[in-house]
Design a protein that fits this description.
Blueprint (H helix, E strand, L loop, with lengths): L6 H5 L9 H8 L1 H33 L5 H9 L6 H11 L3 E2 L3 E2 L1 H8 L15 E2 L2 E2 L2 H25 L3 H9 L4 H12 L1 H16 L3 H6 L11 H10 L4 H33 L1
Antiparallel strand pairs: 1-2, 3-4
Length: about 270
């Protein structure tokens, strides 16, 4: 709401009220517009990937296949890692190198197996479709890898809590495995799906460390997100007014996701009590 750009000037009262001017300038900024589109697509594919992979893994583990416990523990391990560690590792995996003569990471692997057609610039690509920057794909893969294990754990707990009497009754009536899952198990898991979407959604909206460690803002800001823009604007360019406006926009986005969920949860608790 003001034009202050340093704490010293703020303490001396050297600022003026400017209303919504900082926000108007922010939304006219092409970089911030790119950040919003990146956040939208990252959130969309990140949540979809975690939910899809999580429920598939949970169903497989719930069937008590051979080595299921070992597999479960291995896939839960990424949750214990910092986003910074994840970003550093996946940055090495998806480093494109200098094409076509000096490929690195996945591109080098493709070259070894004679699959040069699959080599591309990964997170350095500037190609986009419908405002979706394809450079976000490696970042989405890394994020899904780290948090799909968490989603698997939630779904697995829900599957283990379903009464076997319901499953046996459906089998007696001649229901197939797919019908049992779609008609019985999946509806019971809907509250877990909603909870997972809320948690994953607020993580994706404020994502910073993974993107910063893995790609930074990228060429032409193809992997930029509001948190990185806020960090660079506030602590490197010393534009505290603009940085505060970005922070408020991020706060509002997270609040829009979290507050309705918390409100409905409190209402359910009151009804139960």
């Amino acid at each position: 709401m003001s034009n202050w750009n340093s704490f010293a000037r703020l303490l001396r009262g050297e600022y003026e009220f400017v209303g919504l001017r900082n926000y108007l300038r922010l939304f006219e900024d092409p970089r911030f517009q790119t950040d919003l589109w990146n956040t939208f697509y990252f959130t969309l594919f990140f949540i979809a990937g975690c939910l899809a992979l999580g429920i598939i893994l949970a169903v497989l583990v719930d069937k008590n296949i051979k080595g299921a416990s070992i597999f479960r523990n291995i896939y839960l391990f990424p949750m214990a890692l910092s986003f910074v560690v994840t970003g550093a590792v996946w940055r090495w995996i998806f480093a494109p190198g200098i094409l076509p003569n000096s490929p690195q990471g996945m591109n080098l692997l493709f070259s070894i197996f004679g699959l040069d057609i699959f080599r591309w610039k990964w997170f350095t690509s500037t190609v986009s479709f419908f405002r979706f920057n394809v450079a976000l794909i490696p970042v989405i893969i890394a994020a899904v890898w780290q948090l799909s294990g968490y989603t698997m754990a939630m779904y697995l707990a829900g599957l283990r809590g379903i009464s076997h009497d319901l499953i046996e009754a459906a089998e007696v009536d001649g229901a197939t495995n797919w019908q049992i899952f779609w008609r019985i198990k999946f509806p019971i898991l809907r509250p877990i799906t909603l909870s997972a979407m809320i948690i994953l959604g607020h993580i994706s909206l404020k994502i910073f460390d993974l993107v910063y460690a893995m790609t930074g803002s990228g060429p032409n800001n193809v992997t930029d997100v509001p948190a990185i823009y806020m960090f660079e604007t506030t602590f490197r360019a010393n534009k505290y007014a603009t940085g505060s406006a970005i922070a408020m926009v991020m706060l509002i986005m997270v609040a829009v996701v979290i507050i309705p969920y918390l409100g409905s949860a409190f209402k359910k608790e009151k009804v139960v009590s």
